[in-house]
């Protein structure tokens, strides 16, 4: 009996893997609708973006070649992956509702194919889109974002990386804090610099002050000029003064003057290494980069969840027609995006863990998808 059950399981698995004409039809409809809607939305986005920025381009004499290749060729994949789950959801809702309205879903189910089996080509298409989006988000777009942000800094807005930064407070190692009154990204120097080192009990061990700190590009070290060093021991305070002192700070000048889009310019491996460095430093920015790390996995995975919701919701022929399904689908998709933003803010400014914050929307909408799947016509 056990051998027969195993053979039956194998036959079932092979039947699921065997493609049929209807599978190719659904895959073609899914991917065709997805890429067509993506192309349409991207065209509209590029037109509106160009209309908004054309005055800045003309004012700063941006070359046409740079506008096309440095900006828009890098803007398009960034915008496409940003809302790819939404485009997937709309595509599934649209063509599945149309199939239901034309009684194609009823014909498929009456032919003997189960609703679960009919989901196979949907998830096959979702797998292709999810892998494509994952590779783009984690390995391709971070590099293209560097060119896009450099172009924007040069021809669209004033570079934030060239503006002096004021009142810098940062933890660079565990129990080691630094302070700078101001930092100039161009000269890579800061004024009124302080390093404070504490023991495990929070007691001050040493304090280094300097009128000026400068990054030496030859040695890749920070040099404190006109320094005053105070070492605190149980017996006495030891004070040292001098003209120049090399430090062992593991921090780059770009860390003080990076643009808000800095997190989007790192590949997945670079992001992992940077997260480990921030964790070692005990930085307050750790949650921000952990959110980005988990979002890069959660977003492609959401393609499967939104596909499940889309098929389950739109496979039934209803009186309101395609318009009703699209309206409900848009409401659910925008609520998903809104919920994702709320969760990330709770993680940054509250006590919600970054991983939990990024996966709560997926878990909640997976439950919604499973409920809709049970209610779908079988």
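Q: What amino acid sequence fits the structure above?
A:
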């Amino acid at each position: 009996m056990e051998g027969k059950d195993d053979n039956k399981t194998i036959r079932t698995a092979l039947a699921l893997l065997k493609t049929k004409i209807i599978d190719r039809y659904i895959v073609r409809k899914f991917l065709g609708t997805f890429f067509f809607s993506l192309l349409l939305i991207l065209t509209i986005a590029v037109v509106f973006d160009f209309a908004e920025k054309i005055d800045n381009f003309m004012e700063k004499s941006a070359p046409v070649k740079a506008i096309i290749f440095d900006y828009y060729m890098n803007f398009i994949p960034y915008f496409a992956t940003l809302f790819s789950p939404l485009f997937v959801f709309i595509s599934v809702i649209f063509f599945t509702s149309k199939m239901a309205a034309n009684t194609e879903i009823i014909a498929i189910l009456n032919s003997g194919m189960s609703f679960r089996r009919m989901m196979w080509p949907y998830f096959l298409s979702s797998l292709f889109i999810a892998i494509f989006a994952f590779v783009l988000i984690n390995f391709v777009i971070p590099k293209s974002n560097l060119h896009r942000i450099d172009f924007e800094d040069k021809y669209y807005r004033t570079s934030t990386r060239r503006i002096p930064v004021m009142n810098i407070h940062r933890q660079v190692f565990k129990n080691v804090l630094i302070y700078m009154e101001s930092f100039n990204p161009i000269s890579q120097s800061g004024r009124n610099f302080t390093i404070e080192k504490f023991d495990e009990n929070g007691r001050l061990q040493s304090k280094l002050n300097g009128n000026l700190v400068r990054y030496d590009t030859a040695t890749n070290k920070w040099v404190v000029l006109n320094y005053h060093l105070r070492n605190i021991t149980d017996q006495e305070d030891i004070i040292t003064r001098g003209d120049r002192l090399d430090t062992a700070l593991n921090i780059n000048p770009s860390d003080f003057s990076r643009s808000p889009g800095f997190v989007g310019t790192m590949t997945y491996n670079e992001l992992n290494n940077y997260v480990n460095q921030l964790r070692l430093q005990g930085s307050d920015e750790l949650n921000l980069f952990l959110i980005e790390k988990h979002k890069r996995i959660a977003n492609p995975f959401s393609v499967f969840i939104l596909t499940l919701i889309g098929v389950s919701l739109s496979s039934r022929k209803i009186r309101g027609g395609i318009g009703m399904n699209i309206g409900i689908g848009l409401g659910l998709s925008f609520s998903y995006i809104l919920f994702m933003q709320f969760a990330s803010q709770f993680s940054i400014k509250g006590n919600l863990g970054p991983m939990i914050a990024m996966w709560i929307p997926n878990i909640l909408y997976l439950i919604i998808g499973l409920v809709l799947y049970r209610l779908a016509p079988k």
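Q: And what stands out in the fold?
A: Residues 2-157+288-375 form one domain.
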